[in-house]
Specification:
The protein is mainly beta and 334 residues long. The protein has 2 helices and 26 strands. The protein has a domain at 16-40 and 133-331: Beta Barrel (Lipocalin), CATH 2.40.128. The chain has helices spanning 2-13, 185-188; strands spanning 15-17, 31-37, 47-52, 59-63, 68-74, 80-84, 99-105, 108-113, 118-123, 129-134, 142-146, 149-158, 161-167, 172-176, 190-194, 198-203, 208-213, 218-224, 236-241, 244-249, 257-263, 266-271, 279-286, 292-308, 311-318, 323-331. The longest helix is centred in the first third of the chain and has 12 residues, at 2-13. The radius of gyration is 20 Å and the shape is globular.
Length: 334
């Protein structure tokens, strides 16, 4: 009897949603370009991990050519002053080994390092390290921040869960386990964002969105994206050599969600649909219901995004100059 009640409870708790749209509904001029710059002009040649402050046009960038964290501080005529924050590659308190994600909240720059299994917190104003803490047998592949909470994600997880919620002192508050996630990072890697109550997850290997209540620790909604349900078995190659099983992305693998953000009542999802993980389309969903609403196609091809309030930052690629170019947009709220 107890098992039946448990199954019934789980069934009622999770809402599985699948919307029948087969084509996107495009809006024009909903996202307006405001600014662009080449990170190479500031000697940043591989700006992979990046984020921006909400109230100022300041950009924090981890550059894989310099192996360090930098601040591009807004100056006159849309130019920037470069500030160095970290001490380069290493395992010391101010050093980095393999940063995997960044989020910025309340003038705090928070960085996850997958190789060090560590999260570090920096002061955006003074550029000083506040503290860092280990995530203990958990690789913080993705992170999201809201107010005084840090949420770390890894599909493989640990005994504490796939999503770990910390406060800014590095104290673990709650762990959330999702047994529907594949432990294979090629399938259920993805991107997360959070508000005061929920974590929103977009899968990199599946056309799927999920919503978790991190106050209760429950998965509450699952929805297919507008591109529809995609069979993943044909996109994952599995080979066995003696006792070792190797998993890798198949030649026809196409990336799904490559970025996710929130603005007002919208969940904004960057969908790639390409082998090179780039794309040019943003899809807007109702963040309450996860229902698809409309899309916007951007004139530039990009690989990742960051959203702060009504500002959108994209990491684009200039095919003529063969280098990265950043664009800043304003999102309309009507």
């Amino acid at each position: 009897m107890k098992k039946r009640l448990l199954v019934l409870f789980v069934f009622l708790e999770i809402n599985f949603l699948s919307f029948a749209q087969e084509a996107r509904i495009f809006k024009e001029d909903f996202i307006i370009e405001k600014q662009s710059f080449y990170p190479s002009e500031y000697e940043l040649f591989r700006p992979v991990i990046f984020g921006m402050e909400e109230n100022r046009n300041n950009f924090f960038i981890y550059d894989y050519s310099q192996l360090n964290l930098y601040l591009l501080e807004e100056g006159a005529s849309q130019t920037f002053k470069v500030q160095t924050l970290g001490d380069g590659k290493g395992s010391g308190p101010r050093e980095f080994r393999n940063p995997s994600d960044i989020c910025i909240v309340n003038q705090k720059v928070i960085i996850s390092d997958a190789d060090l299994a560590r999260i570090s917190i920096w002061d955006a104003a003074s550029h000083q390290l506040i503290r860092s803490f280990k995530t203990k047998k958990f690789v913080p592949y993705r992170i999201a921040c809201y107010d005084d909470k840090i949420i770390a994600y890894n599909s493989s997880g640990s005994k504490e869960g796939n999503f770990l919620v910390y406060n800014l002192d590095g104290v673990l508050i709650k762990g959330i386990t999702d047994n529907t996630l594949s432990k294979d990072g090629f399938i259920d890697s993805g991107y997360i964002v959070a508000d005061s109550t929920f974590i929103y997850f977009g899968s990199e290997g599946k056309s799927e969105l999920k919503k978790y209540n991190y106050l209760t620790g429950n998965l509450v909604q699952v929805s297919n994206t507008i591109v529809g349900k995609i069979e993943n078995k044909s996109r994952i190659s599995i080979s066995k050599n003696e006792d070792e099983i190797t998993t890798k992305r198949a030649s026809d693998f196409k990336y799904q969600t490559r970025g996710i953000g929130l603005f007002e009542n919208w969940l904004i999802v960057f969908h790639s649909g390409r082998k090179d993980a780039h794309g040019s389309t943003l899809d807007f969903y109702n963040k309450v219901t996860l229902e698809y609403l409309f899309s916007e196609k951007i004139d530039h091809t990009f690989s990742s995004i960051d959203i702060k309030a009504d500002k959108l930052l994209i990491n684009s690629y200039d095919f003529e100059r063969k280098e990265r170019e950043f664009f800043v947009y304003k999102i309309k709220n009507d």
